[in-house]
């Protein structure tokens, strides 16, 4: 069921997350909704589906933020100089950027597959994989990005933190990767050993 509730009837504690996004606590203690303010949520809408949609949404947002982190890092590697030349010319930095690009590509591929599967029906497996992969990518990518940027990446005047702080927050919302990895393992384990290889090698559904 879905209910429309007057905010004046609730106890609202204002709050925000690490990224500065609004995360208020709303207490509904003794609140009663009139009959005309309550309606069925719609066919197929339940807590499980809402959680899956939330995890998918966060995965999509994280994939976008990871793209931005990569873009900023490559740009910064060409601008920041050490020992008289851009740090992007040093092999160690190039290897870090290559790792970062690989993490972004993997996260994007997993997310695209989850979105395509969700359009076709049950996408629990794909959403779980996407949430795990984007979460892992967020941890590695943000570390590399801040190493490439140095101290400026944490300052208010530089845009990097606008993406990295959101990645740190979003990877835990609607389930961290540990929770979804357990869910993924249960799905695979329930299919039996003879189906493991077909599951891993099945082509992803086509987008659009």
Tell me, what's the shape?
A: flat
Supply Rg: 21 Å
Helix/strand order, N-terminal first = EEEEHEEHHHHH
CATH superfamily label of the largest domain: Butyryl-CoA Dehydrogenase, subunit A, domain 3
User: Span from first to last CA?
Assistant: 32 Å
Spans of at least 5 consecutive residues whose pLDDT stays below 50 are: none
Oligomer: single chain
Nearest-integer average pLDDT = 92
Largest sheet: 2 strands, antiparallel
Proportion in helices:
55-70%
Strand order of the largest sheet: 1-4
Structural class: mainly alpha
The number of domains is 2
Q: Got a strand count?
A: 6
If classified by CATH, what would the architecture of the largest domain be? Up-down Bundle
Measured by DSSP, the beta-strand proportion falls in: 5-15%
Helix segment tally:
6
What's the CATH first level of the largest domain? Mainly Alpha
CATH topology name of the largest domain: Butyryl-CoA Dehydrogenase, subunit A, domain 3
Characteristic key phrases:
single chain; 208 residues; mainly alpha; 2 domains; two-stranded antiparallel ribbon; 6 helices
Structure write-up:
Helix 3 runs antiparallel to helix 5 (177-190). The protein folds into 2 domains: 2-39, no CATH class; 47-201, Butyryl-CoA Dehydrogenase, subunit A, domain 3 (Up-down Bundle), CATH 1.20.140.10. It has helices at residues 47-79, 91-120, 124-149, 160-170, 177-190, 196-201, and strands at residues 2-3, 11-13, 25-27, 38-39, 81-82, 85-86. The protein is mostly helical and 208 residues long. Helix content is 58%, strand content 7%. The chain has a two-stranded antiparallel ribbon with strand order 1-4. Strands 2-3 form a two-stranded antiparallel ribbon.
């Amino acid at each position: 069921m879905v209910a429309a509730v007057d905010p004046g009837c609730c106890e609202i504690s204002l709050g925000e997350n690490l990224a500065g996004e609004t995360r208020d606590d709303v207490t509904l203690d003794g609140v009663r909704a009139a009959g005309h303010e309550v309606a069925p949520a719609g066919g197929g809408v339940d807590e499980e589906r809402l959680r899956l949609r939330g995890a998918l949404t966060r995965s999509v947002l994280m994939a976008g933020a990871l793209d931005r982190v990569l873009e900023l890092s490559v740009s910064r590697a060409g601008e920041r100089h050490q020992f008289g030349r851009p740090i992007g010319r040093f092999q160690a930095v190039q290897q870090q950027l290559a790792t970062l690009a690989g993490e972004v590509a993997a996260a994007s591929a997993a997310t695209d597959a989850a979105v395509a599967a969700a359009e076709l029906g049950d996408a629990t497996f794909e959403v779980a994989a996407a949430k795990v992969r984007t979460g892992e990518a967020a941890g590695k990518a943000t570390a590399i990005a801040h190493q490439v940027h140095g101290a400026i990446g944490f300052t208010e005047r530089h845009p990097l933190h606008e993406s990295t702080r959101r990645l740190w927050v979003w990877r835990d919302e609607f389930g961290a990767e540990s929770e979804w990895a357990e869910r993924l393992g249960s799905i695979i384990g329930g299919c039996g050993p003879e189906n493991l290889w077909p599951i891993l090698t099945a082509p992803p559904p086509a987008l659009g």
